[in-house]
Amino acid sequence: MITIESLRKYGANVDEGLQRCVSNEQLYLTLVNRFLDQNTFPDLKAAILDHDLEKAFHIAHSLKGVIGNLSLSPLYDVIYQLTELLRNRTEMDYSDYIQRYEMSYSLLAALR
After folding, report:
1. What is the dihedral of CA 34, 40, 41, 46, to 10 degrees?
2. Domain holding 81: CATH number?
């Protein structure tokens, strides 16, 4: 079960995330779990692999907003970089970013 303490150990900026949820721990934990339940990264990965950088950017930008609002710092660092590259429609090998995101996401999901 995800707890405030396990999120801290993961590297999330829990205090910032809680501030956005008016210090309601239950709301914050519910939103983190909902984020995990609605994993849209496979859609982002597919768009990148299909070289649809326009679609990939829109998905990444949306993910960046959700992850940023939840202050999930390890994921945010990766999705921020990925979003900025996609914003510029940079043609490149994104496999390192995909791998880093998936690793960080797996660590978060393992907290359940």
Report:
1. 170
2. 1.20.120
**7 sits in which H/E element:** helix 4-10
Compute the distance between CA of residue 76 and CA of residue 84 in angstroms, rounded to an integer: 12
Tell me how far CA of residue 1 lies from CA of 5, 14, 29, 33, 110, in angstroms.
11, 16, 10, 10, 9
pTM: 0.93
Q: Are 25 and 17 in contact (CB under 8 A)?
A: no
Give me 71's structure tokens.
């202050």
Give the structural domain span for 16: 4-109
Retrieve residue 16's tokens.
């910032």
- Three-class SS of residue 106? helix
Residue 46 in contact with residue 82, Cβ under 8 Å? no
| Mean pLDDT, rounded, of the chain | 97
- Span 82-99, pLDDT tens digits: 999 999 999 999 999 999
Q: How many domains does the chain have?
A: 1
